[in-house]
Specification:
Elements: H1 3-27, E1 49-59, E2 65-78, E3 81-93, E4 102-105, E5 109-117, E6 125-133, E7 149-160, E8 163-173, E9 185-195, E10 200-209, E11 221-230, E12 235-244, E13 252-261
Antiparallel strand pairs: 1-2, 1-13, 2-3, 3-4, 3-5, 5-6, 6-7, 7-8, 8-9, 9-10, 10-11, 11-12, 12-13
Length: 262
């Protein structure tokens, strides 16, 4: 294989993995949780609606840069049942200068959350969710994985005064994909939210997953810190910055967006 072809092949394989990681860990996250990837177990009340959108920049050392712009819609079907739809747009800048940059619709994901256990003084709120990731993104341009994936997620959240702690653990079943190196994988996350004032909340998390790439030597493991500014009772603005803790993760992640709920 010529050197230029091999370089392009490795670029595409890396980006397919990175897009898969972002979809599995970020795009599948519940939607009222910006800028965190870890999903709060509290669901929307019946009839409530939430809309959020924002930009996310990813950079990997010695590799390409990626800009994601997910738009998320949530609706409370019942007090214990929530439907979410995430529509991602992705732009990829290839560093080698030879591969054409790619942009377009990514893999749309549909998320159905169920809350069987409410929070008490001793018990956390516990919810589960099933996510289906479609094949709407063009995998040849590294905008999708080329397969329909399924994720089951367990979420637990507990309030301690001004602090909310959340733990997630999930499992993703990867569908048939033209890129045969994918495998099923566990994912996990731990987050906190600290209400400094009624307007300002500080957030942080550590999250990761078993590497879905069969040939990878390291698992992705990331951390992020940020804040949420509650501009009104219905509008929140957020910002987060994070870094990878292993070589399998982007070395820089920056995200900013807004959530409107009513």
């Amino acid at each position: 294989m010529p050197l230029t072809d091999a370089r392009m092949y490795h670029k595409i394989i890396f980006l397919l993995f990175m897009v898969h990681f972002v979809i599995a860990e970020l795009a599948w996250a519940g939607i009222e949780n910006r800028p965190l990837a870890t999903v709060d177990a509290t669901l929307l009340e019946k009839g409530a609606f939430s809309f959020d959108s924002g930009a996310e920049f990813l950079r990997q050392s010695h590799y390409d840069k990626q800009l994601n712009w997910p738009t998320d819609l949530e609706y409370g079907i019942y007090d214990n049942l929530e439907l979410d739809v995430e529509i991602p747009y992705t732009y990829i800048n290839f560093k080698d200068g030879e591969t054409k940059d790619a942009s377009g619709l990514g893999d749309v994901a549909v998320w159905l959350g169920f809350n069987p256990i409410k929070e008490t003084s001793l018990c956390p709120v516990i919810s589960t969710a099933l996510t289906i990731k479609t094949q709407s993104g063009n995998w040849k341009d590294a905008l999708g994985t080329g397969g329909t994936d399924y994720q089951v997620l367990l979420m637990m959240s507990k309030t301690f005064g001004s602090v909310i702690t959340t733990f997630n653990i999930g499992y993703t079943v990867t569908g048939d994909s033209p890129e045969k190196s994918y495998r099923d994988a566990f994912n996990y996350g731990f987050a906190f939210e600290y209400a400094v004032t009624k307007k300002w909340t500080i957030v942080g998390e550590i999250y990761g997953q078993a590497n879905p790439d069969k040939d990878a030597a390291r698992d992705p493991w990331d951390m992020l810190g940020g804040f949420i500014y509650h501009a009104t009772d219905h509008l929140a603005i957020d910002f987060g910055i994070g870094t990878g803790l292993t070589s399998a993760s982007p070395d820089l992640r920056m995200t900013a967006g807004a959530t409107y709920a009513f």
